[in-house]
Amino acid sequence: MVVSVLMVAEKPSIAQTLADALSPGHKYSSRTGASPACKVHEYEGDFYGQRAWFKVTSCAGHVYSIDFPPEYNNWDRVEPLTLFGAPTVKQEANPKLRMPKHFQTEAKGCSYLVLWLDCDREGENICFEVIDNAVPYMSSAGSQQQVWRAQFSSLAPVDLKKAMATLGSPNKDMSDSVDARAEMDLKLGCAFTRFQTKYFQGKYGDLDTNLVSYGPCQTPTLWFCVRRSDEINAFQPESFYTIDVTVAKAGRDLQAQWDRGQVFDMPIASLFMNIIQDDNAKAVVNDVSQKEDRQARPQALNTVAMLKMASTRLGLGPQQAMHMAERLYLDGYLTYPRTETNTYPKNFDLQGAVRAQSGHPAWGSYSQQLLSNGLARPREGVDMGDHPPITPVRAATEGQLGDAYRLYDMITRHFLATVSGDCKFLRTRVNFTIVGEGFSVSGRKVIDPGFTAIQRSGEMEDVIIPDFKKGETIEIKRVSMGSHKTRPPSYLSESDLLSLMEKHGIGTDASMATHINNICERNYVKLAEGRRLIPTQLGIALVHGYQMVDNELVIPKVRANMEKNCTLVADGKAEVLPVVQHCLRLFREKFIYYVTNVELVDQLFETIFKSLEAAGRPLSRCGDCQRYLSVVDRKPVRMFCKTCNRIFKMPQNGQMKLYKELKCPLDNFELVFVANKVGKSYPICPMCYDDPPFGAREEQGKHWNLDHPIYKKYRPAVMSCIADNCSGTLCLDVDSGPKWQIDCNVCLQQLSIFEDKAHKIKATSDTCEECGSVLLEVIFNKGKSPLPDGELERKACLVCDEIFNTHTVSKTGKNFFRRNPGKGKDIQCICQGKGKGKKGKGGKGKMRRTQRVPLGGLWRVSTAQTFATGRGEDGGFGALPMLPVRTKNLVAELESVRLRMGDQGERSVPPFGAADPILGLQPPGLGPSGLRSDEQCLDIDIVQKVPVRGFCVSAARVKELRDRTGASMGKCREALKEEEGDLEKAVDWLKKRGVRSMEKRATESAEALLGLGLQQNGGAIVELRAETDFVTRSDVYQQTLRYLASTLAAAPDVAAGGTQAALEMLVADGPDRPAQLRAGTALSEALLELGSVLGEKLVLSHVHFLAPPPDGVVAGYVHPKFADSMPGTGRMAGLVSLLAPGCDAAALQSTAARLARHVVAAQPRFLSVGSISAETLRKEQEVFKAAYLEQVGPRKAGAVDEQVLKKVIDGKTNRFYQETVLPCQELVAPQAGASDKKPVPVAEWLQAEARQLGVEKILVEDFRLAVL
């Protein structure tokens, strides 16, 4: 029986190398799989004694990447603090590659899976990504092991065959450590980055960076650079002095070295100088010594050492060097380039590696000499148990490798140097005295060059000095005093920075290069001459700001501890969840403290950077306040209105200027003209670009939307884009004359039409019957018309008309349009025209209809009075957004569509095929039935609304409706226009329209606020969510929240039932009820209606209720979220219930209120030590134990005394109680008259309060805590 074996490598090239090395006779077949990037190589062979059919394929890096769910990816609607507790999802790293489908398909029918991923933590993680997709679709292997793991470090055939013979199992712990680090880095980095990017970019205009990013590895890397910069700036130069003596011997001048080196006191240096310059002074030799010395050969090469050498010797950046090394590995020239080991294992075939270089033209003879003389034993180093050092596998020339040969040359020479002898030389030192002061002259002579003969950076030259004899007198030729100044240290080089990162445990050997590249790309440092890293003002301000708020945000110790925790997971000594939760809890507290004190960082930024107002230039007018918007041309490019205090995102590429002083018909903002370097230009409305009124929000900035009225007029649609894999539409650039062009609204595809022959081009309302493109009406210049008989005007299709098609050229170099029809060639075009066809037989060629024609037919309503030029008498646009209809039953579908024609009122559209009695128009290209003869499904656009002289709405009327409903100014104006000023109808219009849109929105909203209500029956905390903080700041929203909290606190039966019971509660009338919250309806319906007028969905997320115990009280506290928040609302809220029989209720209430403040500030997790579950305590103690053993080190961990370990764990457990258990916490709320005293535990404080109130004790019955 033949079994099927699926083998998966990390790269397609490795899969092909595997198939070639392992297939019998190097015979295998190849085919394409479900993924377009990864082929499948097949051959027949043996698998552990069974005949097997092997399928060798690969992935392309990680199959999945970690990210937040889509609802958490909106920066404007998600509070960064929520990201610490947000869920994460794994999604396809590159959906276009279809990797999950690829593995699922290939796994069907296979009994075994062999994983050939890179042998590091990342490789193990990819192993389990492949396992998750492949194993569920595989056939059973009975009781035998089904999933195997190959361990290899080289792609040499002998190493691959050895790995195939010694298969093992994948390591789940190593994979989990990668997931743990990825989740922590994602949440920490995104939370800090989002907050400070929005905060600082909203205030300063010359930051010169798109992201003010923070990273657990990136920021300590930047700290190293800034620390060195601070040392340089704080350096105070100091003068020092030397005595320089030149002696003469055998006709040569020799510079002598003073034994004292230098002195820092000028009078002392002058004293020595005067003594030596005495006329009777002589230089007498008192000792001549010779000693054989040696320079040790280098150690084997690991990743960090390779990157440092590439930077200092070759001038290559770490990331560039890493990419080169990976390419050399994939091509089979090097062993795996990601390793921390710098010593060769005992079974490593050094002889074979040197023999592979014996035929190289540059060092082949040296390799042969090494083999004949015997290899030197490599120096001992550190074996990290991952991969052997980086070693060349086979010889290669510069012609084979190109630019990567420089790195290959360096690595190969270094490898040969490690197995060469030490460099031996004879050192000669001559000591002599001048009036008691000692001086010396040194020389050397190479005895055996050893490794320096092959390693270019280690060559040694002889330093020859004459022969000296003890006791002889030497002529003093010159004596002088040198004056010098101490110099500051140099800025860190990439090599220096890599050493520091390795020393402090920042990043891994594979990720260090990425972190250095990131701080360069973020404009935190600049790369200077000698590959030295000089921090920018932005980088210095950030680091200094972090240090002012919390020094642990930047120092490497915290990140190093995170890496140690991940190592504990990889070694199987700790579980993933406790490690991740511990780190996130720590950084969440740091984040809250950073946000609270960000003004300290802001003070530094104010002294360095310009405000938005100072950095911007006025460009166009705001549609709300009619004052000028300023544009900041530095990236990120944005516009802002200082009056409205709003920032608008803008395109990041291109020059901007005012566009004809025209205004957007939707919001009255002046239009801006954007022209980029490739010649594509288009107008935009700042408001509509930042907050698109059409299409999905995630498409913002990717293209202009054809539904917008400014593009219907100034960039009218012509036809589908002809570029591959583009779903865009080619639109006429009405501003491009006399060199007319057509641009795609999505990609960079451009068409140049008619060169300079056309005087005017207009997109008509007619469409081509053959291809569906819009017909163009062209007026040519006199004397340049390509039309027969010198005609100047023609209306035709750009695709199907022979003359129009001939004068159309693609600017991207793709010849989709025929330039010379009738040559007998099958030239790809949208529609083949007349002339000779494929085989040159003449006649009319067949018309091939394009696969993408979204413009089936355009029916635009226009009248001679108002729309002949596309603009009305009032200067407005002639056509607002069209209503697309796609159906075969056109008549039935369109009878329900209504038109509003100014003073003509509403009317129905007549059936297709019949002329309109009022407008006098006939839909083009349709028969009496309203359908084309080919019965194809067409796109028909009709004008939904055509304003002639729109209803004038006064500002006072709009304000009145806004005050009544709380809706935005724009929606209030639109509602009043629709209902012709009727206030009551406008209110109903807002509700109906809003409720329909609210019902379609997602139930999760990003912003929230907490409300606290206290009544005799108990206390309630209510969490009400909205979509943006603009709504949560509004009075209507906060009044509603206070009303709900107060009402639920007075209704314990409802509040105890939770959120669902509260939503079913009827809204009761009362003095505290907001007018916008309709009484007598269910709360769920009332919130839906209120959200409709506010423009956002409101969600009652959580209800927390706490009832007072008998003879007890309930008190609460809420910490405000905004400075102007209403009392009783905030972002953190707590409730506490206390019991003290016989105590005065008012006095006990005061104590409870102070304890509630403590609960909000300290955020306890448990009511008492006894309420902590045994499982929770066990997991925490496991983390404590693992952390302590890691701290003492692997050598001492085995000898730790159990009693000592128990005491350490007990101490950490007590500390855990003090941090999380309410009675054990130190009281945060201030004590009366004890501001200078040491904080006391809550339990002791309650005992003191009980004595003061005259009761035996005060008991904490329960507490509730809610934090956003």
From TrEMBL:
Family to which this protein belongs: Belongs to the EF-Ts family.
Give the superkingdom in one word. Answer: Eukaryota
InterPro entries xrefs:
EF-Ts_dimer_sf, Topo_IA, Topo_IA_2, Topo_IA_AS, Topo_IA_cen, Topo_IA_cen_sub1, Topo_IA_cen_sub2, Topo_IA_cen_sub3
Q: What does this protein do?
A: Associates with the EF-Tu.GDP complex and induces the exchange of GDP to GTP. It remains bound to the aminoacyl-tRNA.EF-Tu.GTP complex up to the GTP hydrolysis stage on the ribosome.
Look up keyword Metal-binding and say if it applies: no
Q: Where is the Toprim domain?
A: 4-153
A single GO CC term, please? nucleus
- Predominant subcellular localization, coarse grouping: mitochondrion
> What name does this protein carry?
Elongation factor Ts, mitochondrial
Q: Where is the signal peptide?
A: none
- Give residue ranges for domain Topo IA-type catalytic: 171-592
What CDD domains does the record point to? TOP1Ac (cd00186), TOPRIM_TopoIA_TopoIII (cd03362), UBA_EF-Ts (cd14275)
PANTHER family in the cross-refs: DNA TOPOISOMERASE 3-BETA-1, PROKARYOTIC DNA TOPOISOMERASE
UniProt-annotated location(s): Mitochondrion
GO molecular function annotations of the record? DNA binding; DNA topoisomerase type I (single strand cut, ATP-independent) activity; translation elongation factor activity
Catalytic reactions of this protein: ATP-independent breakage of single-stranded DNA, followed by passage and rejoining
Q: Which UniProt keywords apply?
A: DNA-binding, Elongation factor, Isomerase, Mitochondrion, Protein biosynthesis, Topoisomerase
Q: Please name the GO terms of the biological process aspect recorded for this protein, alphabetically.
A: DNA recombination; DNA repair; DNA topological change
